């Protein structure tokens, strides 16, 4: 091969690794599943936007105060030492996702994922200001003029207003939202709050307004590993080719059975309503987010044609293969995979709830005084000095008694036997333990320091340490 032919050969073998995006303008659809999506959008956003404004015991009901290292969730207050509860919550969330996916596919993606929810909201705004999918396509193809500039400008203004409010609310979970609102109005907002409001707003505006299905196709890892949680009994959005094929257009009066046709009229409505632009008739694809818009669209066409619904429906691979009828779907929900997920979820959820119910709102820490292991008092007794930290993790004040055990006659020095702590207060104090040398058996003796609330016997915590002889 000559050098002159080399560029031509290279050009002939060049491949496009990333498909150029074709902008999707999905057609609006109405039906049972569309109503469910609307209901879930309203529910999730009512919770998201409303929770920071809810007050509980004269404070914000849900607040993750990173600066103070306290996390308020209604009547509970969590500290960094309670990180195990976050771990448990993440495990429960993961197992729930595995269970729901094994039973009914990508329910999370189709109805509750923030990407889906905000894309849906932004598309409502787009449909309201620019018209239906046909009008939007015409607007996309039209040259820039005053009308197009006005419509697009107004749309993006509304989009960014929603995104800013979303970012403001997000930061309101970490900075008291009433304080945040006052600082915003007065123009005294701090640099970090400003950054995160704008960052989250920009992410919402970009993901829901521009990237949309690209996030689901290329950025979301769930789409890539969902297949390991599917099996032949998982409910998925499915085109039933056994009743739809051969497809083809026909008039409403045509006897499709006599004409040798299936019930699919090849109208492509299922493609037009799909937010990710796939054709469900080609089989299950990883881009499908399980929103069931194609089911609503197809059912509308079947109703118009007078055909039975169910050409596209939630069903299982085994039903389509004829291994059991649709009526057997519920019976096949209980299978080894889902039983294991359910048992694990139940056990961990039970342990999580039990741990919360029996959680002691008191933490203590004991550190020895390293200046001297021990010393002898004027009375000939042996004294060890410690640094005791008491964290009252309760929203109520308490008085605590301090006791020590492990050595016969072990005493807590006067002045540290009765300590008052306010709500959520941390107290550091020196603590002296005194023992008779006649009772000390060895150089280092294990002892236990106990702190208990005088007004609540259920609040009690122990800490182990060492008592050193001279």
Automatic annotation (TrEMBL):
InterPro entries assigned to the protein according to its UniProt record, in alphabetical order: 4Fe4S_Fe-S-bd (IPR017896), 4Fe4S_Fe_S_CS (IPR017900), Cyt_c_oxidase_cbb3_FixG (IPR014116), Electron_Trans/Redox (IPR051684), FixG_C (IPR032879), Ig-like_fold (IPR013783)
Residue stretches making up the 4Fe-4S ferredoxin-type domain: 255-283
PROSITE patterns: 4FE4S_FER_1, 4FE4S_FER_2
Residues spanning the membrane: 28-51, 71-100, 157-174, 194-211, 339-357
This protein's record includes keyword Coiled coil: no
Highest taxon of source: Bacteria
Cross-referenced Gene3D superfamilies: Immunoglobulins (2.60.40.10)
Pfam assignment, any one: FixG_C
SUPFAM superfamilies according to UniProt: 4Fe-4S ferredoxins (SSF54862)
UniProt keyword list: 4Fe-4S, Electron transport, Iron, Iron-sulfur, Membrane, Metal-binding, Transmembrane, Transmembrane helix, Transport
Protein name, per record: Cytochrome c oxidase accessory protein CcoG
Organism this protein belongs to: Thiobacillus sedimenti
């Amino acid at each position: 091969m000559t050098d002159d032919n080399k560029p031509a050969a290279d050009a002939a073998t060049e491949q496009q690794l990333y498909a150029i995006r074709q902008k999707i303008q999905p057609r609006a659809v109405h039906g049972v599943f569309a109503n469910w999506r609307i209901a879930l959008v309203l529910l999730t956003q009512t919770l998201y936007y409303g929770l920071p404004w809810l007050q509980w015991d004269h404070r914000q009901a849900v607040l993750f105060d990173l600066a103070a290292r306290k996390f308020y969730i209604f009547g509970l207050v969590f500290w960094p030492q309670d990180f195990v509860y976050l771990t448990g919550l993440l495990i429960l969330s993961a197992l729930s996702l595995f269970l729901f996916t094994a039973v009914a596919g990508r329910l999370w993606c189709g109805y509750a994922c923030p990407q889906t929810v905000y894309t849906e909201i932004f598309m409502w705004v787009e449909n309201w200001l620019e018209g239906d999918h046909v009008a939007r396509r015409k607007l996309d193809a039209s040259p820039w003029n005053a009308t197009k500039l006005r419509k697009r400008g107004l749309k993006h203004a509304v989009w960014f207003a929603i995104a800013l409010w979303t970012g403001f609310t997000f930061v309101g979970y970490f900075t008291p939202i009433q304080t945040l609102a006052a600082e915003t109005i007065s123009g005294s907002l701090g640099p970090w709050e400003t950054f995160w409001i704008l960052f989250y707003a920009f992410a919402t505006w970009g993901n829901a307004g521009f990237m949309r299905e690209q996030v689901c196709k290329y950025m979301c890892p769930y789409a890539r590993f969902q297949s390991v949680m599917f099996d032949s009994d998982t409910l998925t959005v499915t085109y039933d080719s056994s009743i739809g094929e051969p497809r083809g257009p026909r008039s409403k009066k045509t006897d499709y059975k006599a004409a040798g046709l299936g019930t699919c009229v090849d109208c492509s409505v299922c493609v037009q309503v799909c937010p990710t632009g796939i054709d469900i008739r080609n089989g299950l694809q990883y881009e499908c987010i399980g929103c069931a818009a194609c089911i609503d669209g197809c059912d509308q066409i079947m109703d118009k044609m007078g055909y039975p619904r169910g050409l596209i429906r939630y069903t299982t691979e085994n039903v389509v293969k004829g291994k059991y009828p649709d009526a057997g779907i519920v019976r096949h929900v209980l299978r080894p995979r889902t039983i294991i997920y359910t048992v694990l979820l139940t056990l961990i959820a039970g342990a999580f709830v039990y741990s919360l119910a029996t959680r002691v709102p008191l933490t203590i820490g004991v550190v020895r005084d390293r200046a001297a292991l021990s010393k002898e008092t004027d009375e000939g007794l042996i004294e060890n000095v410690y640094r005791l930290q008491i964290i009252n993790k309760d929203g109520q004040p308490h008085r605590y008694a301090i006791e020590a055990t492990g050595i016969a006659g072990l005493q807590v020095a006067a002045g540290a036997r009765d300590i008052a702590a306010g709500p959520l207060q941390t107290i550091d104090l020196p603590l002296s333990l005194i023992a008779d040398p006649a009772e000390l058996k060895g150089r280092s003796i294990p002892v236990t320091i106990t702190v208990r609330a005088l007004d609540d016997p259920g609040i009690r915590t122990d800490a182990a340490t060492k008592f050193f002889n001279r």
